[in-house]
Amino acid sequence: MVTEALMEALGNVLTLQHFTYLMVGVLVGLIVGILPGLGGIVGMSLLLPFVYGMDATSALAMLIGMLPVLAIADTFASVLMGIPGSSASQATILDGFPMAKKGQAARALSAAFTASLFGGLFGAAVLTICVLVARPLILSFGAAELFMLTLFGLSMVGVLSGQSLVKGIASCGLGLALGMVGSAPATGEYRMDFGTLYLMDGVPLVIVGLALFAVPEIGDLLRKNSTIAEKKSSLGTGWLQGIKDTWAYRWLTLRCSGLGAILGMIPGLGGSVVDWIAYGHVVQTSKDRSQFGKGDVRGVIAPESTTSAKEGGGLVPTLLFGIPGSGSMAIFLAGMVLIGLQPGPAMVGQNLGMTYTIVWSLAIANVLGTILCIVLAPNIARITTVRYALVAPFMILVISFAAFQPSRSYLDLVALLVLGIVGILLRRFGWPRPAFLIGFVLATQGERYLYQALQFSGWSFFGRPIVIVIGLIIILSVWLGARSNKGGGSIQTEGSGAISDTTQMWPQIVFTLGVAGFFVFTLYETVGLSFLGKVFPIGVASVGLLAALLVLWPQIRGNRASREVFDGEELRKTDDDGPVGPLRYMAWLAAFVAAIGLVGYFLALVIFFVAFLRIVGKSSWLQTLILTAAAAGLVMVLANSLNMVMPEGLLQEHYYQYLFWPLR
Amino acid sequence: MMKLPMRFMRGTVVAMAAAASLMFAAPDRAEAVDFSGKTVEWWIPFSEGGGSDVWARFYAPYLAKHLPGQPNVIIRNVPGGGSITGTNEFAARARPDGLALVGTSGSTQFPYLLGDRRVRYEYHDLEPVLVSPTGGVVYIPASFGIEDASQLGQLTDRELVYASQGATSLDLVPMLAFEVMGLNVRHVFGMTGRGDGRLAFERGEATIDYQTSSAYLTNVQPLVDNGTVVPLFSYGVLDAEGNVQRDPSFPDIPHFVEAYEMMHGEAPSGVAFDAYMAFFASGFAAQKPAMLPNGTDPEIVAAYREAFAAAAADPDLQAAKGEVLGEYEQAVGDDVEPLYHVATSIDPEAREWVRSYLTENHSVMLD
Known about the structure:
heterodimer; B: alpha/beta; D-Maltodextrin-Binding Protein, domain 2; 43% helix; globular; disordered N terminus
């Protein structure tokens, strides 16, 4: 029955009509994937309005066709620009972007594409088999097991901490504390929300990701008066080398694909952390770690194969139980309901054909997406040879556009600005941002699952077999990470090195005090809540405060050789001849956000483009106008096709009825 | 210009034909209304992919087809703040020109009924034009040895576990139902959806659960058929007089009031039951209302009511409704007002009772 259904589904997929819709999905996925920061949620939202009224197989082909391409194409932004292409490709930046700067972009991309292709096909294969047998596996992961998986994720902080473990812990604590903003999972009490509606749902993940990685990176590139690629050629050579790399590390690719498929299959962990788990895994299991963070190809292969395999795995709970593992899966579910398919046991019974249509669409879209990405790569890579002052406003456009997707609110942009400045400072003072992000992603889950596990089964949950197995894996992984390296076994996710006598100490002392202050604030804000609402934030804030104080101690003592002392400015003094220094960059961003508050997003964007290109980019009026028109056109097309109203300012508030689209 | 009256005539005739049995609104009142070439924005205070989003996207093409002038109807998602943000914005911003309507859900009605201070919308100022009901079934494991609701008395000593999305979410309805029924239930919060809750039930972590109709039919019915799960009661639907009736999707399952009588031998009454009824109406029997802004011209309101009446009677919609609308009769035309009123009103005494119940039992702070 299974092979029959498989073959019949293949026949369905290969009809012209079906294939056309698959291509539509693939192309949308490609465009959304290339644009930094926009991920599966945006892609699915773009396609959803068209689903209504389509026949089931075509609609599935279109929606599914988008997914793998997105996971492949989001590599471009990560590798070429150091900006997360979507929240699932953050870890790729750590090694992919340094490779691009060394002129090995082609190698990094081809390794990433090959790994993605393999991972995606592996995920599709897993989906084929697992829909039939995965029910017991998924049912065996209760709250207790999911809590242990959250701990497993948090244990990766150990290897991602850079030169100072306490900074990593404090950084992770910051992320955890930020992740607790909003309603407490156990009691529904609102924490640290300042009584606002905006913070009720917490800070959106996409904003945190962009603020921590994209905002500092753009600022950094603007300080140098150059292009992204330091070498002349945009991509460099090495297409074949990349494929060879993936082949050379085939067991790693296979391991990471399996990891991705399994983590994707378990509902509730969330896709945004699997790339970091994969990255942590490859570091832990490698003997030579000296190149990680500086351009090791393994650091690209591992997260890419994992995130691609995750898509196939993630469809298992979606189809079997109707439980979306990610935001894009939630919209996919809505699409299924619209075409009259209700997820559930029937998907492996009478609707098995539909399930296998999904499998084939996934596999074919993977291959198509890889081919398209390779074909387009040289053109896309040209962007790295353009003077960065001309690229930067487009980057700011795309990240600000991506940032207001979650709630379509002006406050999204304020959050991006505030957290972006935090990101710049974290980077400057060597506080590992990956640790921050892991803490943020896992905050709600960790708290929710611990509380639920205790409520469902009490402390005895530690005796459950899968809990013990995951516990052993955590111990093994920490031990693997710590072995043979006296420096805590970690890799450089941020800069490192002692600072010289001439550098001022006070900036980093002030920042450390700020971090400690945030933990004190967390304590102050949550201490009055009910026991279940406060126990987690108080625990996190106490540990974080202790770690922050441990960082502060050598800084105050002026121990310049300490691993806790670091200031990125130390290394920068000589090579900065770029148009915009860090303070001016922050001022530009703040001015942009303030302008949005006055005249709304669209008008502010136009003003920002003209001003930035004229003043910083030193463009001619003609060039300025062409680029500004291109930007305005891009925003109008995207906003129009998403039926979106852009964040509004005072102008819209008072003169709404006199304005016309796109101003309102 | 010759086309316009023709197209308009056709729209009106279809609307009239379909609506004739439901209402006697004079068609010539609506004749001044014409949306040709216009775009109607249907605000949904939830993100893409949620239940309300699917509901509005399903209705949108039929609404467009039956509104005079056949405008373009688009869905505008304004998510955030548990749907309070978008609805607040609509109440403050939308102009009463017939080009904007809003569709809310139980999770928008609940904070309003509870008197949440962040709510800036007043349901009684808005003009309802459609109300869509939904339903759900409460079930327990067969291993308890209970065959139906009449034997529920055997369970009152035993602590049941319910996997809840939160004390002020839609899961407030089962919470109040269990309370009125006299069941001893521990609520474990933090589920991200009813699917999550069902998984906890299937794992044995939760021991009482409910699913909305379509999820029940696809995912729980097989478990009932193989004898591992026993349905207790459905929430039921409200008829035109405001009485609870059996759910048309589950004619063989008793509704809540029947189940209460089976268990206790008398009809439920009292302030807790009043509170349950208000939230049941708001969360199920009239879960999704669509409304025009305050001060909308009566002709426009009439045109919308006719359009929704015609849309609900459209054979294409009837053929395609599947799981989106289920078997529930859509309240259109003159049926809108009474149902809407029940769903958006609560007796002040019952409101106070719920507020103190939530504060005392689940430390919910509403101010």
